[in-house]
């Protein structure tokens, strides 16, 4: 925790505030009625001029999520249509090979048995506003499900920054 004193509107001069860099929450002491925990996003404009450069982490990019899904290849078109229906405007698709708990499988081809150690999958990478992330994950999970082993995995990550190359727009505006 980092401690500093600053004058903030609706507070007494010299109120103490604590910034947790891990969760980006600021707790302000000295406010009438006790302590108040506020998000750094709301207080950033008030605190930025009072603090040394770089003290407040840039959390704006965390309004954007990257969803990575590995699914069965034959489900790609069905998933794409479902995502388009809920408002997803773009995605990146890559053909991949991998294995999970199934550790591959065996196939018989012209009477000979072959071990297939890496199973073909399709990787989807989708960048969406945070507010839409749960709906996208739910849609992918529901649409890609076959109730058989190897249906895939979905990962959700924070995006620190997104930039549209053509216009220079950033974060939510860039997607």
TrEMBL record:
GO CC entries: cytosol
Membership in a protein family: Belongs to the P(II) protein family.
Coiled coil: none
Keyword S-adenosyl-L-methionine: no
Positions carrying O-UMP-tyrosine: 114
Record lineage: Bacteria, Pseudomonadati, Pseudomonadota, Alphaproteobacteria, Rhodobacterales
Key words, A-Z: Nucleotide-binding, Phosphoprotein, Transcription, Transcription regulation
Keyword Oxidoreductase applies: no
Protein name: Nitrogen regulatory protein P-II
Oligomeric and partner information: Homotrimer.
GO molecular function: ATP binding; enzyme regulator activity
């Amino acid at each position: 925790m980092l401690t500093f004193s600053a004058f903030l509107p609706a507070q007494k001069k010299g109120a103490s505030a604590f910034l947790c860099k891990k969760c980006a929450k600021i707790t302000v002491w000295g406010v009438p009625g006790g302590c108040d925990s506020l998000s750094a996003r709301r207080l950033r404009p008030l605190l930025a001029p009072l603090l040394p450069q770089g003290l407040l982490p840039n959390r704006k990019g965390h309004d954007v999520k990257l969803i990575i899904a590995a699914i069965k290849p034959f489900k790609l078109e069905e998933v794409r249509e479902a995502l388009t229906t809920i408002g997803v405007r773009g995605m990146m698709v890559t053909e991949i090979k991998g294995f999970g708990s199934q550790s591959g499988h065996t196939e018989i081809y012209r009477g000979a048995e072959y071990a297939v150690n890496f199973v073909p999958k399709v990787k989807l990478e989708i960048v969406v506003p945070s507010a839409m992330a749960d709906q996208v994950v739910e849609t992918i999970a529901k649409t890609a499900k076959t109730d058989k082993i190897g249906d895939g995995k979905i990962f959700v990550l924070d995006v620190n920054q997104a930039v549209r190359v053509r216009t220079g727009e950033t974060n939510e505006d860039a997607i």
